[in-house]
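step 4 of 6: structure.
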Amino acid sequence: MDQSTFQQFVLSDTVIVIHTERMLDNNNAHIMAEQLSEARKKGLKFAIIDMEKLDFLSSAGVGSILGSIEDFREMGGDIVICNASTTILHIFKVLDLGDYLKVMNTQEEAIKSCK
Amino acid sequence: MAATNTIEKLDDQHLEKQVLALDALSELTRQFAAKPDFQELLISILYTYSGQFGVGSCFITVRNPHSKSEKPVFAGISKFKDFKTFELFGAPEIDANYLLKKTKAYRVEDLRDEIKSDFTARILEIGNLKVLVPLIHGDKLVGLIGVGDKLKVSPYSDSELELMSSIASAITPLLVNSFLFKEIAALSNWYHEIINNVKQGVFVFDENRKLTGINQAGTDIMIRITDGEFNKSTISNQRLESVFSEKYFQGWHNRILDLLSNGEGQSIENAIAGRSELKQIFNIRATVVKKNRSGKGDLIVTLDEITEQKQNEERMFDLERLADKGLMAASISHELNNFLGIILAGVELTHAAVERNQNDNAVASLEKVKSNVSKMIRYTAGLMDYSRLDTNKESADINEIIEDVLSFLVVQRRFKGCKIKSQLTGGISKLELDTDQISQLLLNLLNNAADAIAEDKQKSGIIEISTSGDDKSILLTITDNGNGMKPEVKENLFKKQLTTKKTGHGFGLVTCGKIINNHSGTVEIKSQVGSGTTFDIRFPKQ
């Protein structure tokens, strides 16, 4: 039932990229939260979440990301979303997160914004 | 126009939010059904609130409504992760009743104007806490969800509070049930532990008589009996007759089926299993346990190994037989002594008669000697089967037997100090009697009478023997004026090997009891210490 982890790449000593699978919901939300927490503990300031594969995002999935955001921002970093489909972007809008979450179109743009 | 559009949009957005919340709830329910891991459920609830309301930090604390002693469980994310729950919820001084007044989500700042309690003060100390959502089950407060600031740092709208309350109402029953699940899981584990630790092998067969469960002891038994052929993985789901196969459990299947058709809760004793040298013995119990009113129910078979117990029993039996043989030897020598006494007396009589040239007397005495030697031979022949006295009954006159015995006793040294009086009623009916056995009976009783007299040296001893009859039976009475018996001796006289004599071994009377039984007779004993003893033996007429 549990997959081990999401695919992740450490780009530099401050940036990590985590790729979602097709779904981010109750079943694996805690895995995302774990990975973000681990990254932060290692001192990585910026976590880019690449949602290219993501088809389905639930409230819990969103919550797993939000749960870590404040921690990253305290360090002077942030969580950046990229490659999200229109459906996923719509969910962010419904949940009123448009103003709050940092969303970039492509991974390159996301990486660039991490300074 | 724009305003209308905005309002419409807001309505849509609100609806969509609710749809998302509904999705979240159904997800939670699904997850709970699939994997009721309590801690994971709490975390999922937190992420749901977090995502749904755009909150970074929140906590949840829940306590078991069924158990007052259990501490509340706590989970938190972000800033509330390390929050100490007891500060809020677990400590006894918390006025939880206060919280019950609010059954829906409320803003923490609203508490300010309410009751000023320590609880309130503590809540307000925690700067980040913005909304509290009580979890109410029936009339009990079973938990609390605390929500921090929105990431957008905007106030929570009433509709948002409503939604929080709705989600809380939906998840509270899930949480309450999860406690039950935990208890059930713990109980289940506990029972498993117990079943796996009992000595008996326990086998469970479903209503199609396929094996669904076997405990550790049962597994051990199977491996032992089948000499390692048994395999736990392959045996599962095998039918009753395959598990207790004829190869190793000969006849078991049929016997178990018979047992079941005879009624519940019975057992098969001493069932043998195994092959050749590996034979082991079991007691089997089989019970049907019905899960519901219809259906056959599960079959529980319990095996209790008694091989060692049986081996011990066999050893005990052997020891007892050896002991019996020892006892038997004493009993035999006692009887033989009786005969030898008579034979010796006969020889002495013959000797005396020859010396006095009394040929007729000599011949008569020798005849009696011969007769008793024959009796002895018959007795020793009968010893082949010691547990049965060989009984050969024929129509006989008891008085004749008595006179016969008396004629030899009188001259014995044992009877020197005694006077024997006989009152034998003439003309009483003949009975079906084994002459030899009755002779033995008389010998034993008269010898005992003489010994009782000898122990009391002062008196002059008198032994009276009499016979009388009525239409139903013949009464034989032997009385002595010896030293009598204590009550406890009298009671146990024929029952156990008993002797009060210094050189006695108490077997004569055991034989007497057997002889009386053989003739369907009864015996009554009257005795008083210092005065003497009377035996009243009644033989029924056939």
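step 5 of 6: annotate
 - The two ends of chain A are 37 Å apart (CA to CA).
 - Chain A has a mean pLDDT of 90.
step 6 of 6: archive
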